[in-house]
Amino acid sequence: xxxxxxxxxxxxxxxxxxIPAHDRPLFHLTPxxxxxxxxxxxxxxxxxxxxxxxxxxxxxxxxxxxxGHAVTTDLLxxxxxxxxxxxDTDADAKGCFSGTAVTAPDGKLLLLYxxxxxxxxxxxxxxxxxxxxxxxxxxxxxxxxxxxxxxxxLPEGGSAVDFRDPKIWYEDGRYHCVVSTRDAHDQGRILxxxxxxxxxWTYRTTLDSCRWEYGKMWECPDFFPLEDKQLLLVSPQEMExxxxxxxxxxxxxxxxxxxxxxxxxxxxxxxxxxxxxxTDFYAPQTLLTPDGRRVMVAWMENWATVNxxxxxxxxxxxxxxxxxxxxxDGRLCQRPVRELETLWQNTITRRETLDGDAxxxxxxxxxxxxxxxxxxxxxxxxxxxxxxxxxNDRYRTRVEWSPLYNELLFDRSGCGTRRDIPHLRxxxxxxxxxxxxxxxxxxxxxxxxxxxxxxxxxxALLDTPxxxxxxxxxxxxxxxxxxxxxxxx
Length: 489
Description:
By secondary structure, the protein is mainly beta. 3% of the residues lie in helices and 50% in strands.
């Protein structure tokens, strides 16, 4: 073990132990101490789920990237493992950037990650190339021959300055990976490679590219089959807003749905959609569970606003609640992992015809799972419905549905924030079979909203003090609804 890795492990063990459990969300993973960004190496290995993450243990701001490490058996309760990687070789001296993990046939866990290395006399002159580390799930040995995918394997026009975030998998007796790069025309491209041993790689093809839309540099690719489709997930930088309102400007996340011919290594794009409509969601990564579910987790922050975010703890950054992915009517949908139901307590169910304002006894809190089903077909005279939460006489966040436009407005401008950043999001929300469902998950300052059983999802963070835990419902015109509220413990 290198001195730099040993130093990081000693530091995180000491500092992490000093952070009380009540200083963290209940089930959203936070770093052991210091800074967290992208999820890395999300995998199932030796009876547990492993999630690594971009990590700087020494401060709550971004620094030379390490890999933090946590494990869970239920995707909700996380145990920290020692720091897995530190920037301690020539191949990754400027940082161990994002990557993924796969189990080798011999039972070892392989980490394929981006090593950032000096490329010139100036400290700003760096290359991003792909490196390999092999281990037992706790300790890893980096390949002496790193990088295993170097500049010689970049296709013509590919940039070594932006060449990162490999997603590795093992299939049909060979390793495969996709990697992001930016080409000579400033367009993001997703490159496909294959290898017999994860060390000797061959470039196959470009699977897809920006095509002068959906941002520029594409980061953090994930490539996998889901039911009868093949999905390519990417996180574009420099997105423009789309005229239909589906995509917001800035850092975005995009799902490309299509078909994949393995023999020809050809991906045919058929549909494009956002992955999340919220203000805090980036760099998603997925795994396949032993029972066959495709589960996704993402960084619950935003690069455009993260530097000005308040530092209230000795840690900064968190992951979303893991989500199960599925297709419905040709669209990627998401729902909270079913394990969340094991945390349900004190269930309250109400069926009402609401016309005006309502507050229900026992329906409150900041750790909850609340579903409100609106019977739009039976409520033709309803002009607007509003759900307010994390509320008291000073603060509130609201979700407002307009039946006239079949649109949902999310507004956190009253949550207590003092930052001039995006606080509003609008998304399409048409009833399905006459009903609209809104499922709200709250975990302290973490908010995740699932519309119509995950047809659309919105993730956001709140600056609201913990004591603001009220919930109220408001209807302009009579509205028939059902409410199911679970406290989460």
